[in-house]
Amino acid sequence: MPLHVKRLVEFAELDLNPRPGWPAALLLGDSSCCPCGAWISLQPVYSAPDRMSGPDIARSKCPLRGTGSVGTSKRLAGQKPAEASDSKVEKMIVKRSTVDPIDFDGLQIMDYTSKMDVGSSFAVITVPPGAAHAESWSKRSDKYYYVVAGKVEFTLDGEQYVLSTGDFCVVLRGQHFSYLNRESKEARVCLVHTPSFDLKSEMFIDSSDG
Questions:
Q1: How far is CA 7 from CA 10, 38, 44, in A?
Q2: Are 70 and 24 in contact (CB under 8 A)?
Q3: pLDDT band with cut points at 50, 70 and 90 for residue 115
């Protein structure tokens, strides 16, 4: 039997039963370690917590040799993840009261990431009855629309689709689209741009050209 398989079997026979609430990600394959250590080094592919107490596991004696420490992944079971600085956290949390609505041809846009240097952008758009987004396409971003409330009629490359609450739509970069609200109640959609929104990259079709 190959050594690493033998160690795996030996470790399994220790009857170190999982403990509720323990997500200890143990890793496979450190040949320099003991048989239980053989199960803790290659990839975080198996959650195998044992009966030893959470944060103390790294200081526990090896159950097979009685010496040494039991290795774990970089973040031990039961430990809290490292906390970011307060300033970092504050920059990533956006309160609704700090977002100024933008009126865009009758659409009310709440752009939550306008002041952030991030790879994607997020906005919530209120679409009043009769309001519409003119036909356009993006040179830069894919757009991901999720309908939070109401109904919105999307037109994608000339094909019309009615999206209701809970429906989702992807508008790929370069794809022509438009949408409007034909209902008597306002609709609301969430919008993600990836990469982030850049108005200069949004190309609007002049209706007078058609």
A1: 5, 6, 17
A2: no
A3: confident
